[in-house]
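Please check this:
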Amino acid sequence: MLDTTDTHLQALLRRRKPGYSLEAPFYTDPAIFAADLDLIFGRHWIYVGVEPDVAEPGDAMVIDIGKTSVIIARTDDGEVRAFHNVCRHRGARLVEEYKTTVGNLVCRYHAWTYDFDGKLLFAEHMGKDFDTSCHGLKPVHIRSLEGLLFICLADAPPDDFDAMAARMAPYLAPHDLRNAKVVAESVIIEPGNWKLVMENNRECYHCAGNHPELTVPLFAYGFGFAPEELDEVGRLEARRYADLVETSHAQWESCGFPSRGVEHLDDMITGFRTERLPLDGAGESHTGDTRAACRKLLGSIDDPRHGALHFWTQPNSWHHFMSDHVVTFSVIPLDAEQSLLRTRWLVHKDAVEGVDYDVENLTSVWTATNAQDSALVGLCQEGARSPAYEPGPYSPHTEMLVEKFSNWYVGRMRALNAR
């Protein structure tokens, strides 16, 4: 049994070798998992959903992170609020369903009743001196970034969210996510530590041999390659792709779509990355035929050929914004060796199923890709359990963003574990 004291964790963090994967306990040790829940998921901004999840007043959604359950709800005046899913009477869970619509939040144990501002409205048999104002729901910090919802469980959340939001808002705004709707959602329990799920997402080194659907709309040179390994034809194709990116960025930005890369994956507490990239084939969407999956485009967009904007946030999300639809992904740790991946597909709120879009066509590429990635994560988790496992080197050409994720994680754990 490993020594799982803070001293052991600090030693593992100190000896982390740059450019290499993490040591096995980071993927397998329940004590380090507990530290991850506390220091990473308990003290950073965590992506949990979209405003269309709670589209109307009275809509509520429950998000569970470790032992913490959070209610996200829309108030009568249209604001989105978040509270701990714990009745202030004797602690019963208030909302049991993942999503619901109600007039007020009523605890079914003793009928204590709260409004969507968290105020206690009704508590029978508590005596004339009982002060309801002292027993409202405990709030949770929540922010919306152009319709993407982030919560922070800490008393004092990281204060750089505004800096990230200021950079990202112009990129996301044209897609008008607040006026979209969720038309499909999937949940996968991935057989691996949450960090393996994120590391897998942060590279496409594995894509060519494992993602036949995803590599139809994606260019081969979009996520890194080794220039010295290319022959003359390969170098020419890589140059053509680089020229296409530059030309596309200039064209899209002239139309009001910020496109050039912005990267702060390991030099900010609220780390993020974004860039709008061209798509192959018809160049319209992440679909099997590379054409738009929804006839009604998002926001005021009038041309489906505006590429795909990717947006990543540390520690747990990635997103693809296209002209016709948006796909968002959130990773929530379940235990040291299992993670929940929730994927949402959104289209314009006025789009009509069977007329403007077909759900299977909309979701097929990422449904297949998620299943393939889950299997790969499981292989890595099995390997991390082996006594033969030791940290392996990242490719400097195709896994540089995995390195940035690991740098961010180790840096945040060092900073917070030392306090």
Summary: The longest strand covers residues 180-190. The chain is about 30% helix and 25% strand. The two ends are 26 Å apart (CA to CA). The chain has two domains: 46-144, 159-417.
